[in-house]
Every structure is written in C-alpha cells, then in structure tokens.
C-alpha cells in the first residue's frame, strides 16, 4: 500500500472535475479524497497498490476532463487510513 498526492492546474474548478475523479475512483481499488484549493488548483490524495494508483491517475488523464488539465504534479506520500473516496470542501 502506498499513497500519492496530485495537484492539477488549468481550468479544473467549476467544470465537474472533482465529481469526475470521484466517479473514476469507483472503478479502482483506491481510497482517498479530492478537493479544490484556494489558488485554483485541485488536490488529490489517494492510497492503494502502486499499479492501481497508476491506472487511476492514467484514467483521469484520459477522462472527459483531460482537456481542462494544463499541468499535473505528482508526489509520493505515506499510505494513510481512508474509507472510500470522497470530495472534500
């Protein structure tokens, strides 16, 4: 089990980005959350097996919101306890 933190930049707020990410998460064995940041970015934190996390992030890249992403910044983080996948804030 491992964790990732991903920051998305672009037109990622007000376009259903967080809802799309939550829906995609249902198709993967990941847990965590997604939220809007005050600076206009979206932050994702997720835990799961490395391959599952990689596939999840790739699914976001290929989803209906891909045209809104201008930049993606990914960082490994320690695994954390979470149940399900939710939208914060």
**How would you write the strand order of the largest sheet?**
4-1-3-2-5
| Rg computed from alpha carbons, rounded to a whole number of angstroms | 12 Å
Helix content: 10-25%
Number of helices: 2
What structural category do the secondary elements indicate?
A: alpha+beta
> What is the overall silhouette?
globular
Nearest-integer average pLDDT:
96
CATH topology value: Alpha-Beta Plaits
Q: What is the count of β-strands?
A: 5
The largest sheet, given as strand count, sense and whether it forms a barrel, is: 5 strands, mixed
Topology:
Elements: E1 2-10, H1 17-25, E2 30-36, E3 42-48, H2 50-61, E4 69-77, E5 85-88
Parallel strand pairs: 2-5
Antiparallel strand pairs: 1-3, 1-4, 2-3
Q: What descriptive keywords fit this protein?
A:
Alpha-Beta Plaits; 40% strand; five-stranded mixed beta sheet; 89 residues; alpha+beta; 24% helix
Structure description:
By secondary structure, this protein is α+β, with helices and mostly antiparallel strands. It has one domain: Alpha-Beta Plaits. The chain has helices spanning 17-25, 50-61, and strands spanning 2-10, 30-36, 42-48, 69-77, 85-88. The protein has a five-stranded mixed beta sheet, with helices on one face. The longest helix has 12 residues, at 50-61. The termini are far apart. The model has no long low-confidence stretch (mean pLDDT 96).
């Amino acid at each position: 089990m491992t964790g990732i933190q991903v920051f998305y930049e672009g037109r990622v707020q007000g376009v259903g980005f967080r809802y799309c990410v939550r829906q995609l998460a249902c198709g993967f064995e990941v847990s965590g959350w997604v939220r809007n940041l005050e600076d206009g970015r979206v932050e994702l934190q997720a835990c799961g097996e490395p391959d599952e996390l990689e596939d999840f992030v790739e699914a976001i890249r290929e989803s209906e919101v891909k045209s809104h992403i201008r930049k993606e910044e990914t960082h490994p983080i320690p695994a954390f306890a979470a149940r399900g996948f939710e939208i914060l804030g």
